[in-house]
Structures are given as structure tokens and as C-alpha cells.
Amino acid sequence: MKKFILISLFFSLFISTISCEKQDDLEVPDDLRINDFIWKGMNLYYLWQKDVTNLADDRFENQNQLNSFLKNYSNPTSLFNSLRTNNSIDRFSVIYSDYSVLEGVLSGNTLNNGVDYGLRYKSGSTMDIFGWVRYILPNSDASTKNIQRGDIFYAVNGTALTASNYQSLLSQTSYTLNLADFDNGNITPNGESVTLTKTSLSENPVYNTSTFTQGDKKIGYLMYNGFYPSYESQLNDAFANLKNQNITDLILDLRYNSGGSIATATRLASMITGQFTGQLFAKQQWNEKLENYWANNNPSQFVNNFTNTIGNGTAINKLNLSKIYILTSRSTASASELVINGLKPYIEVVQIGDKTTGKNVGSVTLYDSPNFKKENLNPNHKYAMQPLVLKTINAAGFGDYQTGLLANFEFLEDYGNLGIIGNQSEPMINYTLNLISNGNRISNQNNLKKFKHLSDAKELEPLRSEMYIENK
Q1: Torsion angle defined by CA atoms of residues 376, 379, 380 and 386, in that order, rounded to the nearest 10 degrees
Q2: Architecture of domain 206-448
Q3: Domain extents for the chain?
Q4: pLDDT per residue as tens digits for the range 154-194
Q5: pLDDT 10s digits, 281-294
Q6: N or C: which end of the chain has fewer CB within 10 A?
């Protein structure tokens, strides 16, 4: 398509891209403005733009031809999804009709009843599922009810959960969870239930900080559940606490952390270390035309280096560790995996738990404005999209972990004995403490019955498992 587009990614520069003839934007009819925004944003930013026929730069000769194409889609979401590549490749690009909801999810503010849960298939079934409570958010509706970590539920409002109905049942604003016992691996209804209501809730991802003494070792523990930039000060304070207690080792619990900001992930890695400031933590790979532009103009824009400050300029509290123990599960994704992969070229990373999700791609928020940023917005709608636009690689050039990062020591959670988060006797913490004490000489696995992973609470809101950069 012949065009001249003025855009700004999330930088302070404007760039003119791809073609050189004037784009007749004024010929876009009002009823096609949203669709026009979607096409042009995807054409410019989408990671797999080159692989989607309808996003090709020469697909349309002029705006009128593009308009004719856009008229075929009365629903913006349908157009957006039609411009994505194969679902097996792009599992995570999303569009929202209200960008305020999108922004809330990215910052950890969601409509939430406070129950964070995982979902698994029942033994021997390909349809019937059950849920297990991973943790309860403070100041939530659930925190005032009789429900806690380790509780099992099998139905919602009396309807048994299946792989085909769980999304509709659990996305309701108010519902009743029907509880069960974990009877030697069997899910046995126990007649108990709890009614929950979702409210607007902001989650502080720094869920627990503890310390343990094992012989001559002082071991720190941090459960961190989301890479939210607005909570970086709390994260930095947690590291100050660990540093002041002179810890010798750190257990970073990312079991339930499905991702968030790349910048925050870089800062967390910098807190763990501190001796690599200015060196490459991760490099971003974008589509060919944006790669070519920045290679000739400002290649550092796609580089994330270890840093000595958090987002507000405060100095980072660093531990200068040369080894770290990271707890993972099938729900550990995106920015969590980035931390693991980004640290590996520099320090020893000992991963305990289950294989991670395998999300090595990231996104950016695109708004309907001349530069796709949140300024001079089209006032007639609130659509915004979060397409995948980048892949990350570490300093060694590795980034192909789309099938997940394997644990060095496999250890599955026992739904019949989850233990208390932050407690020395909690099974996975206890296993890791013994691992540290014995110098990594310990038997692998806890030989539990495996239940196939389906989903979790964060995946019901796709952006809660997103790795992203801020479009400033």
C-alpha cells in the first residue's frame, strides 16, 4: 500500500516508515475509522506482519482499496483476529473495546473476588476439571470468607466444571464455588460452598517475604506474582529488607507469576545481581521493517540493559548474587521466563518445580491516535489493541523456549498438602531449603500423581499473562 505514516513507537522520536508516497488518510469514512486504526497498527507493528497476506505493504494500492476491504468487517474484533497469524503461533494478541480495562489489567487492577486458582483435568478425563486455590488476595471479598489456599472446587453454582464451560462460569461477577475434598487424588464433593463477588481490586505482587536459617546460611524467600511497574517501589523495599538481613541465598517464587512489564523484569534481575549494570539483559527482536529502521537510526531502542534504578529513579537495592533458586510451574510465563532466561548467561539459575508456559514474545498497547500512543486519541471510541510485536533473546542469543523452560529439579505441588506460603514447612520451600543445604545433591521429583494443566485465574484475563513494553 502506498503510504506515508507518521508514528512514534514508545520513544520520543517520530519516524516515517516503509513507503514514500502520501497517504490519503482524510478519505477514511467515519464508520471505518476503528478498522483503519486496527489495520494500520497491525501493518506497522505486528511481529508476523510479513506472514499475513492481508497485512502486506503492497496489499492495497490506495486508501479506497483498503476501505473496501475494511467494509467486510463490521466487528473490529473480527478484523483484528483475521489479521493474526496461526493461533498455534500467536496465542496471545488481544483487542479491548475499552482501553481503561486493558490498562487496569496491565497494572494489576482487575475485577476480582480475590481467589487465585489453578485448573486441572480430573484423572483419566479429557473434559471434567477441578480447581484448586493457590492464594487469597488481601482486602478482597474472598479474604472475608471461609476459603483458603489448598481448597478444592469442582463446580460453580452447582454446575460441574468442564473444559468447555469454565470460562463462562468463572467469568461471572458473582458466583458460588462448590467445594470438594482431595481424596487420594479423587475429587469428592463435600457439600460445602462459598459465594464470592468480584470488585475492583489492585494486586500488590509482592505477596510474601521471609527468611530462613539453615546452618551457616541465611536464606531469603520472595513470592512475586506479577511484574507491575506501579509496585516497583514495594519490590525494591522487599529487596532492601532481604539485603539488611544479610541473606546468603535467595528463593524467588514465580510459581503463579504469569508476567508483565519487560522493564520491571529487567529491574528485578538487576536487584538480584547488581554487578552487571550496563550489560545486556535482553534484546528485543521486532518485525523486519522496524528492525531495519532502528538498525540505521537508534539500535539501542531494542536493548534492555541491567540497571541501577527503578522506574521512578530510586536506586536499586541489589544483592550481588551469583546463584539463585527460582520456583516455577506451568503458570510461570512471559516476564517470569524472561528473568530466568536473561540471568542464565551471568549467574547460576537453579529452577525447581514444573516446566514453564513457554511465552517468549511481548506486546505493546496501541491506541487510535496519529502516533498510536495515548495522546490526541480518537474521541469516538475506546478501542485499543495489544498485539504481539517482539521476541526476546538473552545475552547468549537464546530465546527459543516457546515450549517452556524445564526445571533442573522437578517438584509438583501436592493439592492435598499445599502448605502455607512463606512457611519453612511448605513442601516446595522445604524441598528447596534442603537442596540449598545439600549443595544441589538431592533426589529429583516428589513422585506425585500428575494432573494435566488446563488454565488458571490469570488466563481468564489474557493480559494478566502478557509480557509487554510501555507505549509512552
Answers
A1: 60
A2: Alpha-Beta Complex (3.90)
A3: 5-89, 110-202, 206-448
A4: 999 999 999 999 999 999 999 999 999 998 889 999 999 99
A5: 999 999 999 999 88
A6: C
Cell of 372: 498510536
State which amino acid sits at residue 249.
D
pLDDT digits (tens, 9 = 90+) for 228-252: 999 999 999 999 999 999 999 999 9
Task: Kindly write down the DSSP assignment for every residue of 16-84, as one continuous string.
Answer: EES--SPP-GGG--GGGHHHHHHHHHHHHH-TTGGG-GGG-TTS-SSHHHHHHHHTT-SSHHHHHHHTS
Q: What is the mean pLDDT of residues 398-413?
A: 95
Answer whether 110-202 and 206-448 agree in fold.
no
pTM comes to 0.91
Place of cell 541489589: 318
Class of domain 110-202: mainly beta
- Taking the CB of residue 244, how many other CB atoms lie within 10 A of it? 9
Percentage of the chain beyond pLDDT 90 is 82
CA distance 436 to 454: 31
Q: Given the C-alpha cell 494478541, which residue does it identify?
A: 93
Number of other CB atoms surrounding residue 162 within 10 Å: 17
Full DSSP string of 422-451: T-TTSHHHHHHHHHHHTTT-S-S---PPP-
Helix (H/G/I), strand (E/B), else coil: 158: coil
Which strand ranges, in their side-by-side order, compose the sheet holding 409-410?
206-214, 217-224, 249-253, 323-328, 348-353, 409-410
End-to-end CA distance of the chain: 28
Buried b or exposed e, range 82-109, using 16+ CB within 10 angstroms: ebbbeeeebbbbbbbeebebbebbbbbb
Buried (b) or exposed (e) across 257-288, using 16+ Cβ within 10 A? bbbbbbbbbbbbbbbbbbebeeebbbbbbbbe
pLDDT band at 12 (very low <50, low <70, confident <90, very high): very low
Question: What Å distances lie between residue 400 and 92, 337, 341, 388, CA to CA?
Answer: 17, 11, 10, 16
